[in-house]
Design brief:
By secondary structure, the protein is an all-alpha fold. It is built from 23 helices and no strands.
Length: 582
């Protein structure tokens, strides 16, 4: 009789990394996480990580822009395009309403504290407890959305005047809404996965995963155009087309959430539901989520109000979404990428009372955010028309589609500087466990924007409506940024005022660099003309402006460029560390 050889069970990579650490997890936590000491927080490493986040975010945002462009090209400037785009926005708005977009900012400080003081095992338990809370809470939110369905559907179809067509559109909106509601839970799961990765200083996959969702929806739209045709309005759309659109978009979000779970597991934070309500840290975070839900509710309400007003214009919701995508692109590449990387550092400095360092880190984050936001804002305003012409292909090029997209891009582009300031300031206040200040500032912003768009809805029409919506967002973002920035600086020594000289330098350099870029763009448009000329003009103009901007900043010795030195060697080192660090 032969004896059976029992092979040892292979342990997951995260368990091997933990076993390789010093047994006393409480003493080893700071070294394990890499938050204490200058070695783990070299400014070049921060720049390298921020560039990595920005690079993958660029991929996600480009695919997101392509997604909206494909919606316009496939569905056209129609009321059905408004219905699909608006209903597909409801899960994301609900996710934001439940503080979904703030979950990473809320969870990362708690996970960092757990890693520093209790070790990786306790941090995993905390993350799994938070996952359960998120699943339960977001499931209830989905039920509320279904309960409020009649009101939501009515608001999303306000722009359709004909009674019979409006009734048919409401039925289509209802069907789409029911098919996309599961996305609410999936977005919540993805957010916990992002927080787990960021707490371990893993940023790449978290930033890249949304691209998979965008590509999934693009494939769905291409199939819809092939199977059912393009440019159909509400009276011609079939039930089968609605089912394919709804199911396809939800499966795309499921793929996104699955990738975030894979990323969390690779970072040593495997996630599955585990009841953790008895954990004091879970209860503490739940208490802080409540005012954050207020902040997120205000933000979601603001976006929903913009969508409702844009829905009164045929094709207005698609144009608004394109403008919002261009508004979000520089924010994602600049202030959000920078804030994501700085958040663990700000949290650690707040925990240890290093407020001098906190103030320097915060001011540096603002300067880096403005370094991206200022030239992007000017470029979007000046290049809005050629960008719209480059994007207006297929059904979107019909009628006044190009004018709507131009107005939306220009209006939203003006708001960038205020929005970028707010993103960094919000991360700083959350790192200090201050959730009240963003709530109050958001409430003030909401009142201002709601008053402005109420006037817009009654006093304007067509492309002017889209432009005025962007201007309303600009005023609200500036007010919110000022209020949250003051809260972030409160009590911080040598940090009483924003670095205005830095902002002035960015504005002056941008004003000089944009001149040859604008001249070149107009020349190319005049010579080539048409959509090809618009694409070539925008590409060459942006490249010329970028080279000129960076050259002038380098000549002036801009501190924002110092971290770029030796970034490539450091990035290679960081990528190796990401596979070997416990």
């Amino acid at each position: 009789m032969t004896s059976r050889v029992v092979r040892p069970r292979r342990r997951p990579a995260w368990a091997i990394r933990e076993a390789a650490a010093v047994p006393d997890s409480r003493r080893a936590a700071p070294a394990e996480v890499g938050l204490d000491g200058d070695d783990g927080w070299d400014q070049r490493e921060e720049t390298s990580q921020a560039l990595g986040v920005a690079g993958w975010t660029l991929v996600s945002r480009i695919t997101g822009l392509a997604r909206v462009a494909v919606v316009g090209a496939t569905l056209g400037p129609t009321f059905f395009a408004n219905i699909f785009q608006a209903t597909n926005t409801v899960p994301n708005l609900t996710y934001n309403l439940m503080a979904g977009s703030l979950l990473a900012a809320l969870f990362v400080p708690a996970l960092v504290r757990a890693l520093e003081h209790e070790g990786a095992r306790a941090a995993r338990r905390l993350a799994q407890g938070l996952l359960t809370v998120v699943i339960v809470g977001f499931s209830l939110a989905g039920a509320v959305v279904v309960g409020l369905g009649p009101l939501i559907v009515y608001l999303l179809t306000l722009g359709i005047r004909d009674g019979a067509t409006a009734a048919q559109a409401r039925g289509q909106a209802w069907a789409l809404l029911l098919l996309v509601v599961p996305q609410i839970i999936l977005y919540g799961v993805a957010a916990v996965g992002v927080a787990a990765q960021n707490a371990r200083r893993r940023f790449a996959l978290a930033a890249a995963a949304p691209a998979v969702e965008n590509l999934g929806l693009i494939v769905t739209l291409v199939l819809v155009a092939y199977w059912f045709g393009a440019g159909l309005d509400t009276e011609a759309v079939t039930t089968q087309e609605i089912v394919v659109l709804g199911v396809g978009s939800t499966l795309a979000v499921a793929a996104h959430a699955g990738l975030q779970l894979v990323g969390a597991a690779r970072a040593g934070m495997p996630l599955w539901p585990a009841w953790g309500w008895r954990d004091p840290a879970v209860r503490d975070i739940a208490r802080r989520i409540i005012p954050s839900i207020g902040t997120a509710t205000i933000e979601a309400g603001r976006i929903f109000a913009l969508v409702v007003v844009a829905g009164t214009v045929r094709g207005g919701v698609v144009a608004l979404q394109i403008g919002i995508n261009f508004y979000n692109l520089p924010l994602a590449l600049g202030s959000r990428a920078i804030g994501t990387v700085l958040m663990p550092r700000l949290s650690s400095e707040s925990v240890h009372g290093k407020f001098d360092g906190f103030g320097r880190t915060y001011s540096r984050g603002l300067a880096q955010a403005w370094f991206v936001a200022v030239p992007a804002s000017v470029a979007l305003v000046l290049f809005a028309r050629p960008i719209a012409e480059a994007l207006s292909f297929g059904q979107l090029g019909r009628g006044n589609g190009t004018a709507l997209v131009t107005a939306s891009i220009a209006g939203m582009g003006i708001a960038l500087v205020g929005a970028a300031t707010y993103e960094i300031a919000r991360q700083a206040t959350y790192a200090r466990l201050d959730v009240r200040s963003p709530l109050v500032a958001g409430l003030v912003q909401f009142v201002v924007v709601l008053a402005a768009i109420s006037v817009v809805a009654t006093a304007s029409e067509g492309a002017v409506t889209l432009l005025c919506l962007g201007l309303a967002v600009t005023v609200g973002d500036l007010i919110r940024a000022v209020l949250v920035d003051r809260a972030a600086r409160r009590g911080i020594p040598n940090c009483a005022h924003p670095p205005w000289r830095t902002l002035g330098r960015q504005l002056a350099v941008t004003a000089i660099a944009i001149v040859p870029a604008t001249v070149l763009t107009r020349f190319v448009l005049a010579v080539i003309g048409g959509q090809a000329g618009a694409i070539a003009g925008v590409a060459l103009g942006c490249l010329t402006g970028l080279v000129g901007y960076l050259a002038l900043q380098a000549h002036l010795g801009a501190p924002e460029l110092r971290g770029l030195r030796r970034v490539q060697p450091l990035a290679a080192t960081s990528s190796v560390q990401s596979e070997t660090m416990p």
